[in-house]
Input
Amino acid sequence: MAIYINEEPKEFHLQTDVSSYIFKVMKNNQLGQLYYGKKIRHRPSFSHLFQSRFRSNVVNVFPDDTTFSLGTQMQEYPAYGTGDFRYPAYAIRQENGSRITQFEFKSYRVIEGKPKLEGLPSTYVASDDEAMTLDILLSDDRLHIDLHLVYTVFEKYNVITRNAKFVNHGSEAVDLPVALSASVDLPDDDFVMMQLSGSWARERHLYERKLQPGVQSISSTRTASSAQQNPFIALRRPDTNENLGSVYGFSLVYSGNFLAQVEVDDYHISRVTMGINPFDFNWRLSPGDGFQTPEVVMVFSDRGLTGMSQTYQTLYRERLASGTWRDRERPVLINNWEGTYFDFNEEKIVTMARQAKELGAELFVLDDGWFGERDDDTTSLGDWFVDKRKLPNGLAGLSKRIRELGLDLGLWFEPEMISEKSRLYQQHPDWVIHVPGRRMSPGRNQYVLDFSRQEVVDYLYERMASAIEEASLSYIKWDMNRHITESYSAALSAEHQQELGHRYILGVYRLYEKLTSHYPNVLFESCASGGGRFDPGLLHYAPQTWTSDDTDAVERLKIQFGTSFVYPLSAIGAHVSAVPNHQASRVTPLSTRAAVAYFGVFGYELDVTSMTAEEKQAVRRQIAFFKANRRVIQFGDFYRIESPYEKDGNVTSWMVVSKDKKEALAARYQVLARPNPAIDRIRFKGLDPDKLYQLDGSDGRFYGDELMNAGLILDDLVSQDRPSEKSLDFASRLFKLTAVE
Ligand code: DGJ
Output
């Protein structure tokens, strides 16, 4: 059973196979948090876990009880202004200017399965027996506003999700300047906070800090989850590592401005809050209206960081990503962007496609530059009509030729954007997010369309649907290359202006929802100048994301390693590109570039026609290798072995193991060669200790227990595809293990 309820005292115990989450109705009828952590047995009362004590320096709730203060209680969804001086989970500004509320417990409902979140992406169940949902109703009787705190327990996945919903049944309009998704108070602060931060071309690097008294947070104000911060934090115990120890993960299923914050109070309680960033946010809640927050996915693991990551990876692969492509093997693609940039025509594309097909590619993706008059990045966004100068036979003509080669066709769009030099701009200048009369700030020579407006979303749907049909597209790369400035919508009245950021993201979700439901066979890959919007929200619609514009094999180690803390390999778009690398100018061996890209959704991003015969031969082998292993890569369990963030970062290794543990693929990468090196070993993970494994390319057969404990002694790392080369810089080695008994 996933949800236990003690009726008297009123307590709720949410239990997964691994964790327990317990809270109660306190004597003021608000909710108090009792416990979150490793699973504990249920009992008729958990009153003894309620922390209350006399303190002389606090504000109390009742005159006759000096032990009960909201300022020291652990709570579920704390309010502002009634004795708790920590940051609240919500705030409601009323007509008379008051921000004081009193939400009291009214009732609860247990639902089999998991209801959908209106207008927002979320995790889901395939059948109602996969999860149970607890919907707690609290009301403010003066305002007649209901607050639903909704908890879903995925017992087997070991996940608890939370969201909140406000419904205004009263007669006055109120403002919601803060409406977070969840707040969790943990009773101590002995934690290290982990976050995935970066910038363009170096997304989702791992950073850690010991919690300190006060507020520590990450956030986005860019109306995109952003490359700078990913909507995820984890709190690990100081001695927790990959394999051992406990860690709490908090991941927000949202693609816009977010806040993830931990406030350590004066009694060392750690308050974790997560949701839409209150910065420049306000939601006007009129009578009859509701406001739904995005959901937070919470994971407690006592199997170290690997346990947390595998929980997220499995849930996100199986019950967040949706649609027909969720369980289908992803095609090996070739993308022309770095191969041609804007300089291509039909003949060039078909020649590239033909040669790529000969090497084994399955999908050709035509990137930016096929529409309007887009010869560089200064024009045409919004004019999603084929450029007949480059493609004289239209999308249909190109598609026919690509398909005759036996390849599928994919196309690039940047639907949310508009160039000033475009027909669309001339027709609908008011569709651009800007403040009338003020300067507009350009970014990559472009501006952002007002996706809060349904007619804008409808226009983009019509354009994209028409391209899908005309070109029989089987794939769309949905890019987004600048953030919103001069936030203002011509379609919103003054009191709704601070809703624009959220309404914009809801518009993006509406377009994704409509396209993916009308064209279920089209595979979407989301992208935002690389991995600038790599978040669980978009993963719901687009099961893969372009991880980073940085395709340098060395840089990718940190990016993909960091990304793997939350996201499955099936979401991590990873391509082999040409050298010198276009972002880092580094020259790495082709074999290493492939050995890194195998651990994701594999493809190429280069001009195959300019490769040597020897290189093409290597590519042919690589594609065949990936195809032979992609099931285990896409659906297996991922393990990090050696971290690029530890020691001197010179060595990284990781592996993936099939669910039945009969197959595994590991890789070890060395950035720079070192003189007179120690004799290294790789200690594999996740194997069946009792199975005998054959190591590909050797006569060696080893039991799982020895491979995981004694490890495998390594020769000097020499890239397999270039045994004649002397340099051991940027070397890599793959280990394919197959169970033989
Ligand atoms: C940014 C993307 O990340 C690239 O892959 C490419 O699609 C360009 N935009 C095209 O403008």
About this structure: The chain is about 20% helix and 30% strand. The radius of gyration is 27 Å. The chain has three domains: 3-301, 333-635, 642-739.
